[in-house]
Specification:
The complex is a heterodimer of chains A (527) and B (359). Chain A is an alpha/beta fold and 527 residues long. Chain A is built from 19 helices and 20 strands. Chain A folds into two domains: 240 residues, P-loop containing nucleotide triphosphate hydrolases (Rossmann fold, 3-Layer(aba) Sandwich), CATH 3.40.50; 183 residues, Rossmann fold. Helix content of chain A is 33%, strand content 25%. In chain A, the strands form four sheets. Chain A has a six-stranded mixed β-sheet with strand order 6-7-8-3-9-10, with helices on both faces. In chain A, strands 16-17-18-13-19-20 form a six-stranded mixed β-sheet, with helices on both faces. Chain B has 359 residues and is mainly α. Chain B is built from 13 helices and five strands. In chain B, strand 2 and strand 3 form a beta hairpin. Classes of the chains: A alpha/beta (527), B mainly alpha (359). At the A-B interface, strand 4, helix 11 and helix 12 of A face helix 8, helix 9 and strand 4 of B.
Chain lengths: 527, 359
């Protein structure tokens, strides 16, 4: 490798992993992994889903123990048997899913689980937290309750928790997945601040531009192996993708132009939906989608995306407002489906398909075969009391061939398939009914790059066939690169619907955080 | 760096032959362990095991009794299997057997003058409907209010039992019983006649076996049960009426258990007693799980259980081995049989420095 940058090169090693291997049954999650991390350095661990990043970090934080290999922390060989060991060694992990007690305050969450210090009063604790906040630029009021905080503030509390425990080595697992672009900027400032203070940081991610923005060095993993470790300054994004995927990949997104005067197929007017506790999850939502149009939906997780999808699919009752589909083959007849049963929505002339976010928990039955999963939406159409499995099996076999689904047979349980193939089965089944309206929620979540692009292609094909498509997404680059318009939700309200060809990521980020931008087409959003 | 540790790894796939081997090995080990126990009691294990076999299969009478014991176990296991496939934990088979028996007994006691071709269908229908409605109560509460069906069905067992006691002490007390609290023996016309030496409950059981198998594997409703059992969200997503499916399945599940009660009362006991269920409702849960909720496996497994129970009864009287010791033998066998399922599902891996060995 190239010589490292002078400032870091002289720093002592915080972590030195040598030949770590971890297997789960026949699956080799990590094989002979070696990497180093210096004090005052940010190392990005880059790799696709399933490349072994999280397993590796779980060995560092004491959740798993390696089958073989050695871990050196600050130059000494260590055996990390539990998260407590990791904590004693000053290793702090910030998980993707926060581990906070909602009803306690920030300060209470921070001290929770730390050994009691003699004579440590509440005031003293608050002072220590305030010191930390000042040193690293963390801005959260220690006296607020967790449930009052935004997602990014909760993450800040997680960071404060590990710093309070005097962690010098921080591991962040996909920390930006739930943040807006502005919040990501702020997080990176905090990380840089920590680096200046001499902390060692590992950032687990699969987002290239973040890697290029913040890291000093990058270690790329693929299929459980270290591909290479490179200096950020000496590498390009394209080269990183190639290392990550193993081949050059065309990352450009296509946006087929919809017909300019295509008719509206789905119309949502002033829709309000309540959540389990009676609170409004969707508040006065109005939009429409034309034939051949792709409407993206952006928003921080929990802004009403799930409720919107489930309402459209007939799984939730509406408090007020209406949902209409337009039958273009029948005199532009408007059909009100606000209160329709899911089966009616699936089966009507203007058919709608919904590809839910939770593939194995809602879209498919994991223990059933691909063939039996084909039956889910159609079995009740068959005459008589018996299920006919033969046509379903033939259909499954056709699907396997057409979408090149990797599976031993059509009788293989869906849970045995990889994420990308599971999604192909689900989308493939939903497209069999040739839907006029297609709803997709996070269709590429957890998929590798190849599968993601295969899914994008399938969605674009539906668009070209004249379907109206609603695309709930989380990657703003993808939303802006693929959609025709992007609707931004915040707290169940439509903040705005912007033209994806002209909008910027930061503009979307501001809307996601709840501020309305004056120069965009406000009238449409608030109609 | 790390010391060797044994850990369990979930198997992704297991050949049917290997799984069968594990189970055979488990039975073998259970017999050995039980043998040691018998030795400690001061008996010859081979003799004891031999008489267990003789006591359950050896003579025509023994075989007949074992089959008679199999019938309610088989029917009840079929019943609970339906609910279990839906992940509805019906622990109330015991009570459902009682209710079915009570409903059938009403017609046996007060309408014994009806011709057999009317009386028996009416008794079976009554047993099925009464137990089905009984089972619908926890199902409706679960579907409506999200109550816990395990506790609910369990507690309803006692209710059913006390209803029998009430009938025995009061309204249905045998007038010819010299004031002894018991329910009268059924009239000849209300007793199930023997076919091939055993009351015709066995025919009902086998017919039910085929019906339940077809229902679960071939029917739309059976498909719905599997989907709801796996994930209610998926069922709702597919437009299924989850509440309706829960209640309907539970009616069938409890109704079939009720039929077992009718068969016990009219076929085996020829009257209604408190012990009409006699633990069958609980044993059936074990049988259903050992059969992995597969109706075809329930037939041999329930027969094996009946053998075990008959055999232990037999050695009690022959060797003077106490009731409790016989129960220990049963427990040992069960422990190994259930325990081996762990090894069918998981593989143990021993970790050593630098290498990993699969055991």
């Amino acid at each position: 490798m190239q010589p490292t940058t002078p400032i870091i090169a002289g720093q002592p090693l915080a972590i030195d992993l040598r030949g770590l291997t971890k297997t789960f049954g026949k699956v080799i999650a990590n094989q002979d992994i070696s990497l180093t991390l210096r004090e005052g350095e940010i190392l990005s661990l880059l790799g696709e889903n399933g490349s072994g990043k999280t397993t590796l970090m779980n060995m560092l934080s004491g959740i798993y123990r390696p089958d073989s290999g050695a871990i050196f922390i600050h130059g000494q060989r260590r055996d990390i048997r539990s998260p407590i060991d990791a904590f004693k060694l000053g290793i702090g992990m910030i998980h993707q899913h926060f581990k906070l007690v909602d009803v306690l305050t920030v300060a209470e969450n921070i001290v929770l689980g730390t050994p009691a210090e003699k004579g440590m009063s509440r005031a003293a604790i608050t002072r220590k937290i305030a010191d930390l906040s000042l040193r690293y630029g963390l801005m959260v009021d220690p006296n607020r309750k967790i449930y009052e905080l935004s997602v990014s503030e909760k993450q800040t509390v997680e960071i404060m928790k590990v710093l309070y425990r005097n962690a010098r080595i921080l591991i962040l697992d996909e920390p930006t997945a739930v943040l807006t672009p502005q919040e990501i900027d702020r997080l990176f400032q905090i990380l840089r601040r920590m680096r200046e203070q001499g902390n060692a940081i590992i950032l687990i991610t699969h987002k290239l531009h973040e890697v290029m923005e913040v890291s000093d060095r990058i270690t790329v993993l693929r299929k459980g192996l270290v591909v290479d470790t490179v200096e950020r300054a000496n590498i390009t994004s394209d080269a990183l993708v190639e290392m990550m995927v193993g081949a050059a990949v065309d990352l450009s997104l296509k946006r087929p132009e919809p017909e300019p005067d295509a008719p509206v197929l789905l119309k949502v007017e002033n829709l309000c939906v309540r959540g389990a506790e009676g609170e409004l999850k969707l508040n006065d939502v109005s939009f429409d989608i034309r034939a051949g149009e792709l409407l993206g939906v952006a928003g921080v997780a929990g802004s009403g995306q799930k409720e919107l999808c489930e309402k459209l699919a007939g799984l939730l009752p509406a408090k007020s407002g209406c949902v209409k589909v337009i039958d273009i083959d029948n005199n532009m007849n408007e059909v009100d489906i606000t209160h329709a049963h899911p089966r009616k929505i699936i089966g009507q002339r203007v058919s709608m398909s919904f590809i839910p976010e939770d593939r194995l928990g809602m879209g498919l039955v994991p223990s059933m075969s691909i063939a039996d999963n084909m039956l889910l939406k159609t079995y009740h159409h068959e005459p008589g009391p018996l299920v006919r499995r033969k046509p379903a099996r033939e259909q499954a076999e056709k699907l396997i061939e057409r979408l090149s689904i990797a599976t031993p047979s059509a009788l293989t349980p869906v849970r045995r398939l990889s994420g990308g193939n599971v999604q192909k089965v689900l989308i493939g089944r939903e497209l069999l009914s040739k839907p006029k309206v297609l709803i997709t929620a996070y269709p590429v979540r957890g998929l590798d790059i190849h599968s993601s692009y295969a899914i994008y292609k399938m969605i674009n094909k539906q668009k070209k066939n004249g379907a109206a498509v609603l695309f709930i997404g989380e990657d703003l680059d993808v939303l802006l690169g693929m959609c025709d318009r992007v609707m931004v939700l915040c707290g169940g309200k439509v903040m705005d619907i912007v033209d994806a060809r002209t909008a910027t990521k930061h503009q979307l980020g501001a809307l996601m955080a709840g501020s309305i931008i004056s120069d965009s087409k406000k009238g449409e959003a608030l109609a | 760096m790390t010391k060797p540790v044994i850990r369990a790894v979930q198997r992704t796939d297991i050949a049917p032959g290997v799984a069968f081997g594990f189970r055979a090995l488990a039975i073998g080990l259970a017999l050995c362990t039980g043998g040691v126990f018998i030795l400690l009691l001061g008996h010859n294990p081979f003799a004891v095991y031999g008489s267990m076999l003789r006591g359950s299969l050896g003579t025509e009478i023994a075989l007949t009794e074992t089959i008679k014991m199999t019938i309610p176990l088989l029917v009840t296991s079929l019943g609970v299997t339906l609910a279990f496939r839906m992940r509805f934990w019906n622990i109330g088979a015991e009570g459902q057997i009682c209710i079915g028996a009570i409903a059938a007994t009403y017609f046996a006691l007060f309408h014994a003058d009806w011709p057999g071709w009317v009386l028996f269908p009416v008794m079976m229908t009554a047993a099925f409907v009464a137990a089905g409605l009984w089972g619908a109560i926890p199902a409706v509460c679960k579907a409506r209010f999200g109550t816990n069906e395990t506790l609910f069905t369990l507690m309803m067992n006692y209710l059913a039992l006390y209803i029998i006691q009430f009938l025995r002490e009061g309204p249905w007390k045998d007038p010819a019983g010299f004031n002894y609290p018991k329910i009268a023996r059924f009239a000849q016309s209300a007793q199930m006649k023997g076919v091939l030496g055993i009351h015709w409950g066995w025919i009902v059981a086998l017919v039910l076996l085929v019906l339940v198998y077809l229902y679960m594997r071939r029917s739309k409703q059976g498909y719905e049960i599997d989907v709801v059992g796996q994930s209610e969200n998926t069922a709702r997503y597919a437009g299924m009426n989850v509440s309706k499916i829960i209640v309907r399945t539970m009616v069938f599940s409890a109704g079939i258990c009720g039929l077992a009660g009718m068969i016990q009362a009219a076929g085996a006991n020829r009257t209604l007693t408190e012990s009409v269920a006699g633990g069958v409702g609980f044993t059936a849960i074990t049988v259903a799980w050992l059969s992995q909720l597969n109706p075809l496996a329930i037939l041999p497994v329930s027969f094996l259980f009946a053998m075990l129970q008959r055999g232990s009864g037999f050695i009690e009287s022959i060797f003077g081995i106490s009731n409790a010791a016989a129960a220990v033998l049963q427990g040992v066998l069960l422990f190994f049989m259930l325990g081996c399922e762990f090894f069918v599902r998981f593989r143990l891996t021993v970790r050593k420095e630098g290498v990993s060995v699969h055991a």
